[in-house]
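Record 1 of the preview.
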Amino acid sequence: MSLGLAKRNGRSAVTSHEIRLLTPADAAVFREVRLDGLRQNPHAFLATFEHEHAMPISRFEERTLTSSVFGAFVDGELLGVAGYRRQDGTKESHKPSCGACMCGQRAAIAALVRI
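->
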């Protein structure tokens, strides 16, 4: 975890930043960020909002156990996710593959505010 300074109401405030693997306990917020990304940018992903929205929360819990899904947290709030997997096969196992990367609308707005 790292600490950073952010300006709030003209004063500096300490914020905490953390990037970590998601666990089944994060499934609800993972689902929320993923659905937000699919809703905001449907053309950027193979999955559709309608298909993912119909999935039970247990499917998102399962994804955190069977895939390496990293979450970016600011002050304990999940703002973005990125999937990672190692390629199959002897000659490709050293190659990582980054899956869907997405951030929720709140993270996108926060990034724009800093510009």
